Amino acid sequence: MYTILKSKALAPNIYEFTIRAPLVAKNAKAGQFVIVRIHEKGERIPLTIADFDKNEGTITIVFQVVGKTTHELSTLKEGDSLKDFVGPLGNPSEIERLGSVLVVGGGVGIAPIFPIARALKESGNHVIGIIGARSSDLLFWEDKVKEVCDELIVCTDDGSKGVKGFVTQAMEMVFKEKSDIKRCWAIGPLIMMKFATQVAKKYNVPITVSLNPIMVDGTGMCGACRCTVGGKTLFACSHGPEFDGTLVDFDELIKRGERFKEEEKIAWERYKSMKGGA
Amino acid sequence: MAKVRKTKVPMKEQPVEERIRNFNEVPLGYTPEEAMEEASRCLGCKDAPCVKGCPVGINIPNFIKEIKEGNFKKAIEIIKQDNSLPAICGRVCPQEDQCEKECRLNKIGEPVAIGRLERFVADWEAEQGIERPNLPPKKGIKVAVIGSGPAGLTAAGELAKMGYDVTIFEALHDTGGVLRYGIPEFRLPKRIIDREVEYIKMLGVKIEVNAIVGKTITIEQIWNDGFQAMFIGTGAGLPKFMNISGENLNGIYSANEFLTRVNLMKAYLFPEYDTPIKVGKRVAVIGGGNVAMDSVRTAKRLGAEQAMIIYRRTEKEMPARIEEIERAKEEGIIFHFLTNPVRYIGDEKGNVVAVECIRMELGEPDASGRRSPVPIPNSEFTMEVDTVVVAIGTGPNPVLLQAFPELKLNKWGYIEADPETGATSVPGVYAGGDIVTGAATVISAMGAGKRSAKAIDEYLQKKLKGGI
Ligand SMILES: Cc1cc2nc3c(=O)[nH]c(=O)nc-3n(C[C@H](O)[C@H](O)[C@H](O)COP(=O)(O)OP(=O)(O)OC[C@H]3O[C@@H](n4cnc5c(N)ncnc54)[C@H](O)[C@@H]3O)c2cc1C
Ligand code: FES
Predict the structure, then answer these.
(1) pLDDT for the residue numbered A277
(2) How far apart are the CA of B237 and the centre of ligand 1, in A?
(3) pLDDT tens-digit series, residues B321-335
(4) Domain residue spans in chain A?
(5) Which residue in chain B is spatially nearest to A274 when comparing CA positions?
(6) Non-local CB neighbours of A23 within 8 Å, separated by 6+ positions
(7) Nearest residue to B277 via CA among B293, B266, B285, B286
């Protein structure tokens, strides 16, 4: 059993859990993810590792409520535990000393970008960060990210905090101003990563994105997570989750994300009616 | 001789109309009377050709003789000397290619139903409540087993019986490997796997689930934790695709994904269970092995109106068990032989709507001795489908292998291991089952686990005497 040591609502529908999982924490590195199953009847869902503490033996996850399972997860309290929590999965980010680097986190993507920024900083890079959300109430971890960045730009779609506009606009700003950015990481919704890739490409900066498609095992056994990268079919869980953004077929991924849309709706409605009736 | 029945005593089955609407087991097993009657068909041949056909050499005539006399306990004891998973093997072994193939009764009719008798006594024993065997004193020596499929479970059980302190590390949240995530409930009920796993635990084996070796725990950490030897039974879990156009459309699954959702995650009970599965009206399963049969029969049970097999050779070359092909036919599965998909066609939402196929003919035999199929030019045609399951085979899962670069692999990417002992290129590390042979059978994986356990014991005795 994997106990929830700390739980916190970061923003409407966005939660942070710190979970006791010493074995996972021991080997966790920036860029990796875990698979979570709440209870015996639960599904296995992938969540990117947002932070880890090897000494305490804990992993931090941040998730947004998007359906039945994430809602059910959000109702758990400190002291409750998860049935299964397996990882660290996928390959760690390639962290090396490059010089100036840019990290971009959009929406819940702010969380997984944090350990990457920290690792880049620890390796002696000049880290420029961009974090963005639709509006100020959906922003979180600003201070935490700031601490591991040399420069940080905050933006919101509606201008309620920081620069008004999308993270991609902030990227343009940075690229225009600085010609020495060696590499960039962008994590967020697929559509954001797609446009972030276009911007990076325009300025000839290599870009890495982190994919989080529907998964079952998370170890390369089922192919549920397959995606087209550079014309080849790869498994996001075992070949990724990070890929060169310019090679990723985002449109296919967006469609594949809708595979179980109807079933997700059925599960969600059933859950709500049961909660209501209980 | 004249009195011997020419055919097997029939085993009751769930009627077709019922079983295509549920996931309950299809064959229902023998009663004691039926088992004794079937056992009496055995000629008790002195040279026992059947034993030579058994990959683990069970003393078949002896256990059958005990059944004939009603000594079921004796019978199961005889089987268990060589086979630690009889309830499973009695259900899923390809007996028609092994023991039953060698039976002398084939000359006059059907062979003795050795598999059914094995299943009968194993189930009989379970009903009596399984007794814990007397265990030797603990040696206090730790051995790690990676993977809880039939290879790993058997190696662990055997080592525990010798007094070793065994821990199994399993990547998934539950045990059994393919037995649990691959083979469907209607062919191998999960309670039988649970029972066998319980028995292994009774022997003192510790099982760590959610422990992916190479990720959650490294090989180095295993050695540092004081394990003195290791058995690798990680299987052949990497799904293959054909790499044809449209294969990533929605509605196209690998057999591993399709079966894992249904079996391990119980998607057939959605929405009571959270994992969904989507099966349309017209389902095409690509392939001709057990995995393809299991997938297509699962699709039928999940409501497919037309559940079909697309296979590039003919029925004769199909590697699936004959019994399962027969049952599939009874259940109304449609077979398209000498047919191969060339591309999938999707709609604007990215859902598969059709498969374009090409007709094939059989050419010269290939390296494996099977006649290889060749496409007939300009014979392409299209079939409407809304769900596709690709069941064309698997390869070695790379997670462990990448984490263990010292292990020598063969040219197909499987672990190179001594066929007698399972010894690998790394001292103290043994391997067996599908990760060595490629996708094979439960019984061969089990046999390998058993041989390796013996070899590990010999290795450790030598090592601890200071010989190594
Ligand atoms: C659908 C289907 C139907 C079949 N039907 C039959 C049949 O009727 N008769 C028959 O004889 N055979 C059948 N087979 C084949 C048979 O199931 C396999 O040959 C057998 O299970 C192989 O056993 P194994 O122990 O080598 O591997 P597996 O059963 O594959 O078990 C391997 C285990 O190792 C775990 N693992 C992998 N990597 C790691 C890691 N890094 N760390 C920890 N754990 C790890 C896996 O999660 C898995 O649990 C079928 C196979 C399938 C897929
Ligand atoms: S989730 Fe199964 S292969 Fe990636």
Answers:
(1) 47
(2) 7
(3) 888 999 999 999 999
(4) 2-89, 93-210
(5) B272
(6) B211, B216, B217
(7) B266
B303–chain A Cβ distance below 8 A for any pair: no
Query: Do the Cβ atoms of B274 and A259 come within 8 Å?
Result: no
User: Which chain A residues are Cβ-neighbours of B277 within 8 angstroms?
Assistant: 263
Q: Running DSSP on this structure, what letter comes out for residue A109? A: G
Helix and strand element counts for chain A (H, E): 9, 16
Distance from the CA of A67 to the center of ligand 2, in angstroms?
21
SS3 B198: helix
Instruction: Give contacts of A226 with chain B, Cβ < 8 Å.
Output: 241, 248
Look up the ipTM and state it. 0.94
Query: For residue B177, how far is its CA from the centre of ligand 1 (angstroms)?
Result: 5
Strands B142-146 and B227-232: parallel
Task: For tokens 């998730």, name the residue.
Answer: A63
Is B43 exposed, middle or buried (CB count within 10 Å of its CB: 0-12, 13-18, 19+)? middle
| Longest distance between any two alpha carbons in chain A, whole Å | 59
Distance from the CA of A190 to the center of ligand 1, in angstroms? 35
pTM score: 0.94
Count CA atoms within 13 Å of residue B366 on its CB side.
9
Collapsing DSSP to helix, strand or coil, A181 comes out as: strand
How far apart CA A103 and CA A182 sit, in angstroms, is 11
Q: Which of B207, B290, B291 to mutate to test the pocket of ligand 1 (most atoms within 8 A of CB)?
A: B290
Q: Which of the four pLDDT bands, split at 50, 70 and 90, describes residue B467?
A: low
Backbone phi, psi, residue B130, to 5°: -80, 130
**CA dihedral in degrees (B319, B322, B326, B332; nearest 10)?**
-10
Q: How far apart are the first and last CA of chain B?
A: 57
Q: Which two tokens stand for residue B97?
A: 């290619």
B215 reaches A (C-beta below 8 A)? yes
* Radius of gyration of the CA atoms of chain A, in A: 18
Q: Which two tokens stand for residue B116?
A: 């059914």
DSSP one-letter string for A49-86: EEEEETTTTEEEEEEE--SHHHHHHHT--TT-EESEEE
* CB contact set of B411 (below 8 Å; sequence gap of 6+): none
Query: Which helix (H) or strand (E) segment is A153 a member of?
Result: strand A151-156
**Cα-Cα-Cα-Cα dihedral of A88, A124, A185, A137, to 10°?**
90
Residue A278 has pLDDT above 60, yes or no: no
Ligand closest to Cα of A256 equals 2
Interface test mutation site (partner A, options B180, B213, B215, max chain A beta carbons within 10 A): B215
Distance from CA of A82 to the nearest CA of B (A): 12
Are the C-beta atoms of A136 and A160 separated by less than 8 Å? yes
DSSP class of B208: E
Model pLDDT, residue A177? 92
- Decide: B232 and B400 in contact? Cβ < 8 Å: yes
Reduce the DSSP state of residue A99 to 3 states and report it: coil
Q: In sequence order, which residues have a C-beta less than 8 Å from that of residue B69 and are 6 or more positions away?
A: none
Closest chain A residue by Cα to residue B173? A84
Give the class (CATH, top level) of A2-89: mainly beta
Instruction: Show the tokens assigned to B196.
Output: 């066998």
Structure token digits, residue A160: 């309620």
All residues at 6 or more sequence positions from B120 whose CB lies less than 8 Å from its CB, including other chains: B29, B30, B32, B35, B67, B90
In the CATH hierarchy, which top-level class contains the domain A93-210?
A: alpha beta
AA letter at B124: W
